[in-house]
Amino acid sequence: MPRKLTTIVVLICLALTGLQTAVAEFEHPIAIRQWSDTAFTIETMANMHVGIGLAEADLKRLSRGVDFRIEDLASGTSTIVRWAVQTSSVTTLGFDQRGNNHLVNDITVVRGAWGMSDAKLVSVDGVLVADLNAVAPKEIEAWLKNPIVAEIGKPYLTVIATSAAFDAEQLKAMRDKLNPEMMIVSSSVGKIDDARIEAISHNTIAVSSPAHNDNQAKTRFVSLGDQPWAMTDELAGLFAKKEAACKSSREMFAKLSIEQMNFKPSDGSHTPRWNAEHMMGRELLFFSQIFHAVDPKIPVMDLNPRQMPEDYTFAHNDWSGAEEAAQMMRVEAFTRRFAYLLDGMDLDKKAVGSKFWSPRKLLKQMERHYNEHSANVLKKMDLTDWPAK
């Protein structure tokens, strides 16, 4: 499909009639990232990257490639694209509904929606994204009168409009009709009625289902930059050491079979699976506490297993070590994805939302934590009852 000069992307936070989405244990935040006026990526808690309107120049700027582009679907199709944890690949399945457990998400894609041949819908972790890239500004008034649009506008809707081709009056009309939670607009739009546009210098914002929000609250208008937030050299160094320790741990776990992950040592110590879940859960909890305090769109997420071996229950007793390593990688990606929320924090003062961690102490502790628990697992391999692969 040729790339248009105008893009409007709509995020709907509840499912349409007949469109099933995965059910989450808790809200999973996604990141919306803008790369140019008409180019976005969506990054999920399962570390899937979905592309919208990306040109070749945009693709070259990404830190990693996208796993799926919504433009790749043929018109008129209705498909679930699942990010398969076992193979780290995209597979196509029929419609169903399943628990969105432990950061593993489903992506539902519908092309040719609302009577528009080039409209596309993507449901990502409870947020429905509609790409209306081919809709011209002159068509917006007719689109707003569409009874299906009126139906989906209640009770929660978030809109992204990215081009100055949509003027303030058209954006105001969309807000008045759809009562959106947020509209991300071009920085060149200027004032929209009496609403202030919140200018964010970098290109990333967190979005999650607003199920507990007041849908009568005023729309939040936001403009994004097109450059990622840059860490200071000092913070980048702390992240690099923490991530190096996590990588080493993942490489160790990736070699273990399901039986080895579930091994209960004769010395009464933890199973290797507990060590993997514990390390992942600690990083997720401590950083989500800090991020949530800065931006409530990111929930506090606690996947920590019970501490004592006799109290511990496997979260996934059929996952191989490679699958547990992938889970650890998802959390690492989450921490880096939303690290812009650390902007301006004193690295040596207790972080907002944390009971006792400063950013520096937390990053150093996570580095030690991965190293210590990996060493504990290596000790289990020397036991006489360690299972063969």
Structure description:
The chain is of the alpha/beta class. It folds into two domains: 8-224, Metallo-beta-lactamase, Chain A; 233-380, Four Helix Bundle (Hemerythrin (Met), subunit A) (Up-down Bundle), CATH 1.20.120. Helices cover 30% and strands 20% of the residues. The protein contains nine helices and 17 strands. The chain has helices at 56-61, 140-145, 147-152, 168-178, 233-253, 258-261, 272-294, 321-337, 359-380; strands at 8-12, 23-24, 30-36, 39-43, 49-52, 68-69, 78-84, 89-93, 99-100, 106-111, 120-124, 127-131, 157-161, 182-184, 197-200, 204-207, 220-224. The strands form three sheets. It has a ten-stranded mixed β-sheet, covered by helices on one side. A five-stranded mixed β-sheet has the order 6-5-4-3-16, with no helix packed on it. A two-stranded parallel sheet has the order 2-9. α7 runs parallel beside α8. It is elongated and about 75 Å long.
